Amino acid sequence: MDHMITASGQYQKEANRNLIMNELRRQGTLSRADLARITGLKRSTITHIVQELIDCSLIREGSTGSASPQGGRRPIALQIDRHFGYIIGIDIDRYTCEAVLMDITGGLAAHCTVPVPYPAEAAQSYIPAVITAVYEKLRRAPDGTERPIIAIGLGISGTVDPKAGIIMESRLHAVKELQLSSHLAHIPVPILIENDANCGAWAEIMLSEREDPSLNGIYVLPRISHTREGRAEHVEIGGAVITQGAVWHGSRFITGEFSMRSWFEPGIEQIDLHREQLLKIEEDPEILMRWVSVVLSKLVTVARMLDPDIILLAGIFATHPELVQQVIEEQFHHSWYHEADHADRVVPSSHVQHIVAIGAGAYVLSNIFSMQHVGDPVTPFDISWEHVVLSGRRNG
């Protein structure tokens, strides 16, 4: 972090370009006139930036529309070239790694899994090895051609400093203060790291119908780790706080944690249920209902204090929405907001499968499509449009 963003002509140009790319990402197809109307930028500015984006193949022209009743030029549709570059999102669990390949607009292009050699190797060895294996699998298409990879996002259980690119502590992987970039110099693209629950929140922020730059919410992600044979081994619950359309990390990067005590410590659980009960959560409806009740009771106080627009329940909550509503109606009807709107504000997550891997890719997208503010420090993990363009040229 050796310098900060300053107000300059280059900054304004980057901001305008970012504004145009964001609208094209959200809307899919727009004309130059549409972009001028939506963004408020001058037609000449739109014309200049759009031509630059066409020249570097980030966007392309499509069909020609009908002229207005007043006549004039017929509008030409513009859209982002989805295949210009790709992002890899990775979720490393205890025994299995899931990964997705996403195009630059967030569309899913491929998926793969690789085994995690836990606990035979130290995490500082197997985490880079797993990331390398995923990169090698996904950077080539089935026909052998090389895909242009822009960046990699990693979602991992634990405390993460995303701006410094450090896994501060992951009890799941028994690692502390791991700076991944020093172990992955052979991979020629940035690798961004984020907490797994925060990744789920980024997926909601960037890749759902409720995308809203002013969104304030709470996101809750329960995760069940399984043995290699598929039996439940641990139950973990994490959360994220969304403020003004972004994840809030807090001063120590632990915002959203349900407890600093972890299920990795013998005899201690995040939730007031015995370990033996928790491991039956997928097969015993009574234990599941009790667990849901305990989690929701912990959320009541937080919801009252923060008064979020929405509470997003992921994981096993999202696959059992009727159970969640039943518990709220039976036990917390008068605790959650006002009677008229609590059911609308407590909703299941939009994503069920590959949620952390998708969220890790969404975190990268947020870095690309979110404009930094003047005075923000510049880090090696900030991805500019110049980087995106160079990645496409290098790999294309």
Secondary-structure blueprint of this entry?
Layout: H1 9-27, H2 32-39, H3 43-55, E1 59-64, E2 76-80, E3 86-92, E4 96-103, E5 108-115, H4 123-138, E6 149-156, E7 159-161, E8 166-170, E9 175-179, E10 191-195, H5 196-207, E11 217-226, E12 232-243, E13 246-248, H6 275-278, H7 285-306, E14 310-313, H8 316-319, H9 321-331, H10 342-345, E15 346-348, H11 355-369, H12 385-395
Helix pairs in contact: 1-3, 2-3, 5-11, 7-9
Q: Please give the domain count.
A: 3
Quote the average pLDDT.
Answer: 86
| Termini separation | 30 Å
| CATH architecture grouping of the largest domain | 2-Layer Sandwich
- Please, what is the oligomeric state? single chain
| Unreliable stretches | 260-264
The secondary-structure element order is HHHEEEEEHEEEEEHEEEHHEHHHEHH
Enter the CATH topology name of the largest domain.
Nucleotidyltransferase, domain 5
Largest sheet: 5 strands, mixed
CATH class of the largest domain: Alpha Beta
Short summary:
The chain is an alpha/beta fold.
Keywords:
396 residues, alpha/beta, Arc Repressor Mutant, subunit A, Nucleotidyltransferase, domain 5, globular
Q: Can you put this structure into words, describing what you see?
A:
By secondary structure, the chain is an alpha/beta fold. It has three domains: 9-80, Arc Repressor Mutant, subunit A; 86-198 and 355-395, Nucleotidyltransferase, domain 5 (2-Layer Sandwich); 211-348, Nucleotidyltransferase, domain 5, CATH 3.30.420.40. It has helices spanning 9-27, 32-39, 43-55, 123-138, 196-207, 275-278, 285-306, 316-319, 321-331, 342-345, 355-369, 385-395; strands spanning 59-64, 76-80, 86-92, 96-103, 108-115, 149-156, 159-161, 166-170, 175-179, 191-195, 217-226, 232-243, 246-248, 310-313, 346-348. The strands form four sheets. The chain has a five-stranded mixed β-sheet, with helices on both faces. α2 (32-39) crosses α3, α5 crosses α11 (355-369) and α7 (285-306) packs across α9 (321-331). The relative contact order is 0.15. Residues 260-264 have low confidence and may be disordered.
